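REVIEWER CHECKLIST
Item 1: Sequence provided? yes
Item 2: Single chain? yes
Item 3: Sequence as submitted:
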Amino acid sequence: MKKYYFIFYLTSIFLDSDLLLSHDLWFESVSQYWILKYGHIENHKNQEHQESLKEIPYKKEQILRLSCVHKSQKSIEEINNFSAPVKLSYCPVFWVEFTSFYWHQTVEGLKQSERISIQKQDVLDSWESIETLKQIQEWNDHLSNPLSESLEIIPLENPFRKKLGEKIQIKIVYKKNPAKNIPVSYYDDVRGNTDEEGIIRVRLRKAGLQVIKATLTDFGYNPKRIITASLVFQLHN
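Item 4: Structure as written out by the authors:
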């Protein structure tokens, strides 16, 4: 029987002056298109610290799945014709499954590889980093159901009816089953753990774009998978 260990981890990982930093995925409107960004949302918006802005390039091969969920959710459009960076027309709900490949903690430090090609005797720990993004632009009641088999954050109420300072109830599922006792973060600040049903209420503390995340480690893969789910939506009031 597979075991899933629910822990808070980094959204994705890279080495920068020996620090491990968390990355975000989100779509941003540019002219008439929506561009998939990878980097740091808060820094990206911080005009006073341009020197700290880091938008990280990615490859087409890192996109494992790219979908547009239409209003009825009975129609999920799988998008196969794209390049990097991803540039799409408007969609009510974007769904992305993404990999930052394999990471290895070695005696010399942290290393990344697109394949498992590092000498095992040098490796202290290895994992594959998987990320999912659900960005909601328009609400419909079907969004209270899972979109995939991967780790996913499901709003149990309309996020666009929420006001700054209010809480939103969400459910975390993995393989469409409730993920209990998972730490959930808001802008990388852990706010609490899910209950037995995978449910938690998160307070919306910032205006504008909302970023809620949850992470688990699945030891059923070799190497293990660290999977991070992100829920992104805009607070309109």
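Item 5: Key structural point noted by reviewer: The longest strand covers residues 93-106.
Item 6: Recommendation: ____
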